[in-house]
Amino acid sequence: MFSRCALPLLLAVLIGPIFAEEAGPLPPAPPPDWTVKVQPVPGGDAPHALAGFPDGSALLVFRGRADGGVRDIQVANRQDGHWSDPRTLVPDGWKPAEAPLAAPALAIRGSRAAAAWYTVVDNRARIQLSLSSDAGRIWQIPLCVNEEKPAPVVAVVVLRDESEIVCWEEGPRLLLRRISPQDVFGPLTPVADLPQALDSVRLTVLTDQDENAPTELLLSYVAGGRPASLVVALPSAKKLADEDNTCECARYAPTASGFALKGTVVSLDAAAGIVVARHEEIPGVMKAMTMPFKAVPAVLKTLAPGREFFGRMEEHDNEWWLSDVRLIAGSDGK
Q1: Would you tell me how many other CB atoms lie within 10 Å of the CB of residue 65?
Q2: Domains of the chain: which residue ranges?
Q3: pTM, rounded to two decimals
Q4: CATH of domain 48-244
Q5: Closest among 100, 118, 196 to 155, alpha carbons compared
Q6: Of 24, 141, 295, 322, which alpha carbon lies 20 to 30 A from 32's?
Q7: 163, 311, 148, 287: which is closest to 237 by C-alpha?
Q8: pLDDT in tens, 262-319
Q9: For the chain, how long is the longest CA-to-CA vector?
């Protein structure tokens, strides 16, 4: 005789397969309501870094493969769905015996881009840093940020005050260095001892919106196959700006936010606090267009239809505000 406890178990064993057979296989899921567009990416088969800008454009940096084995860094821009022809960022002339596996690093902030990479110039290993203020169209002469013999893996990030933090391996240590907006090098800062060679490293900005509060970075890396992460706290943007000001010149303002633009006033509505302006392209941020801006009364009083101006635009609560307006001489609106 089966006990009352055993009977439900037996029924489950006997009936379960029957219901399973009746259920059958699940019907195929409907196809998703989107398509995959296959488009080759220049240098996509080489170590590379890719980033997108707010206006839908993109920037790619990668190790090229020129005749003679030169592996200089190449860049390409994507605009309106098309890639530009790759071009050399800077002619290092490095000819490694083997194809390098380490990719360059890329970071963007608004229209500002920073590229960092490992190379060898005049038989000296270097970590190079180059900056662009127009979404990667024009690049500055690169800066060598290391001091001794670095390893190939590198990371970079752009902060709110337009300074950069570069991270790489040198000896058995993982190092950070800040480069100010005036291209002044900060001290080398060891952040971790590495018992084995660095496989990968990544920097991410956690907090840097308050100029009076510390800036925090998330540093994630893999060394010898073992992952690790740590939070790096830097001085506030205001304190860093004070340290950057090593001359009697005007103090750099870390609070300068938003994006610089050049525009022409189309119309004004003082009652609504709106100025409609036609502005030039802001690379990486916005295409040339005519659009409304909110503005405080003091700004509206300086403007008139037809006047050309330089200014800054910044988004607040889904509205673009115009500030720091300077009229261009000779534009009388007629």
Answers
A1: 14
A2: 48-244, 259-327
A3: 0.76
A4: 2.120.10.10
A5: 118
A6: 24
A7: 163
A8: 899 999 998 999 999 999 888 888 888 999 999 999 888 889 999 999 888 888 888 8
A9: 107
